[in-house]
Amino acid sequence: MARLSPARRKSLAEATSRYHAALAGSPADEHLANRGLLGPSVKDETAKFRLGYVADPLPGHEPYRGMLAIPYLRSTLDGQWSVATMRFRCLREGCEHTDHGKYMSLPGDPPRLFNTLALVGNDDEIGIAEGEIDAITATLCGIPTVGVPGADAWRRHFREPLLGYARVWVMHDGDKAGRMFAHKLLAELPNAVGVGMPDGQDVNSLVVSHGRAALRERMT
Predict the structure, then answer these.
(1) Which residues form the domain of 98?
(2) Could you read off the pLDDT of 113-152 as tens digits, one per residue?
(3) 172: which residues sit within 8 A by CB, 6+ positions away?
(4) In a domain, 111, yes or no
(5) Disulfide check for 38: which of 33, 93, 160, 215 has CB 3.0–4.6 Å away?
(6) SUPFAM superfamilies, per this entry (predicted)?
(7) 123 located within any domain
(8) 124 Cβ contact partners less than 8 Å away, ≥ 6 residues apart
(9) How many CB atoms are located within 10 Å of the residue 210 CB?
């Protein structure tokens, strides 16, 4: 995968800082609170993901105005953070997404793993979830988890950093696409164990409706 240019890295870092600063009190703030990611007990934990709200778009980001901004953070050699890419989630009530996707990536960006910081300092278990919100939710439940941006976004080169773990929990949605996602990963990762959600639910909806312990219970 091609390295980001210095200008691209600077632009992504600026966007992350600007959108994160606009999060408080925004529709994205409300959306995250409704999904259990901004309550008093988890607000500090969620802050490390530097989620944001596109109130004042940078040039080129105008199509994402009013959306939740999800930066793909990376750690630099000196312990600082950088941003590999950014995705956006539509928050418009009643939007049928006929002219854009519910989730949108930057033009030309290939699929990447979200929350690769979970791979650092942990060699026992790792989770894989469908989507960024589910990956954040599982991580807040004490399961370091990376996210694949959609059930059809898995790429074979994603498997390499996962092969050294004692166990890889493949947490998938309770629907046909989720089961197909799990089937593909279980075929490629010999250390993987499937963890299905109830019909019609994903990791986040399970935790919101039944609590953190409900996710761990499905892993035993």
Answers:
(1) 6-105
(2) 999 999 987 679 999 999 999 999 999 999 999 999 988 8
(3) 130, 151, 178, 179, 181, 182, 194, 195, 196, 197
(4) no
(5) 33
(6) DNA primase core
(7) yes
(8) 165, 166, 167
(9) 14
- Contact indicator for 171, 127 with CB cutoff of 8 Å: yes
Query: Could you give the CA distance from residue 55 to residue 21 in angstroms, rounded to a whole number?
Result: 10
CA 124 vs. chain centroid, Å, equals 21
Instruction: Looking at the structure, tell me whether residues 120 and 101 fall in a common domain.
Output: no
CA-closest candidate to residue 140, choices 208, 85, 91, 69 = 208
Residue linked to tokens 């979970």? 118
Please tell me the total count of domains within the chain.
2
Tokens of 164: 């050294």
In a domain, 88, yes or no: yes
Distance CA 174, CA 196 (A): 6
Q: Residue 110 — left, alpha, or beta (φ > 0 → left; ψ -120 to 50 → alpha)? A: beta
- Indicate the pairing of strand 167-172 with strand 192-196: parallel
Q: Which of 54, 31, 32, 27 is nearest to 45 (CA)?
A: 32
Predicted confidence (pLDDT) per residue in 36-93, tens digit: 997 776 778 889 999 999 999 999 999 999 999 999 999 876 667 899 999 999 998 8
pTM over 0.85: yes
Q: Which residues lie below 8 Å from residue 101, measured CB to CB, with a gap of 6+?
A: 90
Last residue of a domain, one of 105, 138, 158: 105
Asked if residues 63 and 100 have their Cβ atoms less than 8 Å apart, the reply is yes
Which residue, of 85, 105, 125, is where some domain finishes?
105
